[in-house]
Amino acid sequence: MSVNADLVEAIIELLRANMHVVREDGSLANIQVSREWLSQEALPSGVDGQVTVGLAECTSTKVELSGRLRRQVYTIRVNVWSHENGTRNKMVEEVNRIVGQNRNAPAEGIAYLDVAGFRNLDRIDVKPFIYRTELVLKSWSFVDMGV
Questions:
Q1: Lesser CB count within 10 Å: N end or C end of the chain?
Q2: For the packed helices 85-101 and 3-18, what is the interaxial angle rounded to 10 degrees?
Q3: b vs e for 80-106, b when ≥16 Cβ sit within 10 Å of the residue's Cβ?
Q4: What is the pairing mode between strands 131-144 and 112-120?
């Protein structure tokens, strides 16, 4: 398995283990965390919201002149989906909280993780409405290429 796939899985596990969203009635919301998939706009039945994680880009730069040690910079897309605006907002707050609390040691082999930006991509032309926020995360790690 590649480093890129491990990074996405590590972020999925980090979010899955730490995400706790409370509904208006005081009960815990059922939030599904998974990889990006083809039919993202069809929320699975029985869930209050969905978080999808996918790798958008990976760049590699030399740290040493020989090229043996390289810094990998990752851009990760985290999409938050819900049919309720309030639930979506709470989910976005949770992603921000989880990333903030685990910024310096998010997973083994990952040096840093932070939210670089976000944008709302709501679909109000369909019924029921689909409230979506795309967060852009930046991460990096150092890789010994063994050259």
A1: N
A2: 120
A3: bbbebeebbbbbbebbeebbeebeeeb
A4: antiparallel
Pair 117, 137: CB distance under 8 Å = no
Do residues 102 and 31 touch, judged by C-beta distance below 8 A?
no
Q: Could you give phi then psi for residue 93, rounded to 5 degrees?
A: -60, -40
pLDDT tens-digit profile of 30-42? 999 999 875 555 6
- Exposed / middle / buried, residue 54 (Cβ in 10 Å: 0-12, 13-18, 19+): middle
DSSP reduced 3-state for 6: helix
For the chain, the distance separating the N- and C-terminal CA atoms, rounded to the nearest angstrom, is: 21
Whole-number pLDDT of residue 124: 84
Q: Which of the four pLDDT bands, split at 50, 70 and 90, describes residue 3?
A: low
**Spatial distance between the Cα atoms of 131 and 81, rounded to a whole number of angstroms:** 6
Instruction: Give the C-alpha separation, 1 to 22, whole Å.
Output: 35
- pLDDT computed for residue 90 by the predictor: 96
